[in-house]
Amino acid sequence: MTVVPFPTPPADSAPTTAGGGETVAAAVDRYLDSVQTKTTRGSYAETLARLTALAGDRPAGPPAR
Length: 65
Known about the structure:
It is built from two helices and no strands. The chain has helices spanning about 25-35, 40-55.
């Protein structure tokens, strides 16, 4: 199985949480933008829409230390 990490967000480009981290919704949008195959992107978007609906405004990563 190949694991593809989320691309690193550019500075000041993604919505952040109160703690300053990127939101799940922003990370998902950024990831989908990186998927070049239209059918794959559409399929992933359907699945990730459910994740975003549940956790969209939560931090995408661990709490900052």
